[in-house]
Amino acid sequence: MAHHDLPAGLPRAAAGRAEHRLRSFARLGKLDVYDYYLSILVVLAAVLLPVARFDRPTATMLVVFLLGQVFVIMAMVALDDVTGFRDGSDTQNYGPDNPLRNKLRKPLVAGTLTEREALGFAWVTALIGALLWAAAVTLAPHRPTWALVLIGALFVVSLQYSYGLKISYHGFQEAFLVALGVVLVVAPYGLAEGRFSGFLLVQGVLFGFGPLMFGVYSNTNDVEGDRAVGRPTVAALVSERGNAVFIGCLSAAEFLLGAVASATGIAPWWFVLLMLPATALRTKQFVTGFVRGDIMRARRTGFRVHRLSVALLVAANLLVGSGAAG
């Protein structure tokens, strides 16, 4: 992640020459933040073994679903940038008073793209994403109704996250981030296997905690901008101490979910132990943010936690699939 902002007061025309337009579109779609797309690795690990049963239609469906996921999420974050630019929150959060944020990551604020270009990008990527997800459903070995409903709902809600209905402006931002992770795990699993799995649901929630837990640290840093535009994140609604308690409770809940799943038999007994490295790193994230007071470094640690969690979830599914761990 770059750390060099454009100088304060740089004219929009000069900012627009700072980088190639395609790079600006890639930034608008947040293609460098690939963490949402790691869900497909969790699903692949859950359906891969035994290899003799893993067929080409399933593999093709997973690839097409992933491509659709990339385009839908690009549309979602582009619309989020349009709204953040219109209401002024991005201008404040990425302005000269916040030198830790790289203005080029927000092409509308930097002036490297126009609002019309951003909207066009969002609607084109949304359409491509919809077509790819429809193709994935057509190619899927199974089409359980619940999976189709989840995919359709996620598509509609994603486009309304910060635009249109502006769901994230009505107090549902944190819940949506977890729900996003859940659907991106359980829906393609349903298309591949034709059944629901409680263990995959647990994994979906844990996957959703990744975006949630770097999202809440971002919200902590952006609290003044969000309050100014009436975006009701938890950080904006409660005191600094209350926000710290909230994030501490989320961190504990992540561990407890795995512990309860192991204790009740939804997950293997060893699952909570396997996830302990992620729990330890999550604890370090909290200490960095709220004991040492370095919120942005804690946010970066959140990406490491998420990627480690995905690796551990993949390992868990491969162990279950191979029968190596009872």
TrEMBL record:
Cellular compartments annotated: Membrane
InterPro entries cross-referenced by the UniProt entry: UbiA_prenyltransferase, UbiA_sf, UBIAD1
Membrane topology: Multi-pass membrane protein
Pathway: Quinol/quinone metabolism; menaquinone biosynthesis
UniProt entry keywords in alphabetical sequence: Membrane, Menaquinone biosynthesis, Transferase, Transmembrane, Transmembrane helix
Listed transmembrane segments: 34-52, 59-79, 118-139, 146-163, 175-192, 199-217, 255-276, 305-325
Gene3D superfamilies hit by this protein: UbiA prenyltransferase (1.10.357.140)
Coiled-coil annotated spans: none
NAD as UniProt keyword: no
Organism: Streptomyces ochraceiscleroticus
Domain of life: Bacteria
Protein name per Swiss-Prot or TrEMBL: UbiA family prenyltransferase
A Pfam short name: UbiA
Keyword hit for Transmembrane helix: yes
